[in-house]
Amino acid sequence: MGVWLDILTLGATGQALAARQKLALDLPLALRSFVASSRGSREYLGELPRAVRQFIHSLSDESERALLTSLECEFVDTIVDDVISGVAQSLLLVELCLAQPHASLDDLNDNFPWEPGLKRGKEWKRKHIADLLSRCPMAMSAICSSSTNQPKAVPGCCDACWMIRRPWRTWPRER
Fold it and tell me: Taking the model in full, what pTM does it have?
């Protein structure tokens, strides 16, 4: 989780290039590292591969265990890709908040770079933006404190932000 917070904090302080580099290089290695195996393939190491192996061994159906064992690396890669995608989405939101400091939740929703072809309603998107904001209070703290005329937000300031339709910079003061 430290790498995730580092990425969002870099984004919140305007260091987008460093944040993107950390997202592309450090986050995948924090989730899993690998060594070449004697069979010529990769063997993953780290907490995530260990958790996947434990999950596979916990399955009661032998055929499911065999299938997942053969797809273990792909399963780990899929999880890593999903985590990176989620952190990238949070980073985009942090950068958007930094670029538009007085935007309301609806403005952030309208200006967020949604995936092409995403077929979700405006209310779902609005809730998703609010959920993203509520999951990164330390990064939002860094953003809130980046302006010299705004008071420093306390960690956890955004856990109920989705209920407020005012510009995000006013949320810490209104709680």
Answer: 0.72
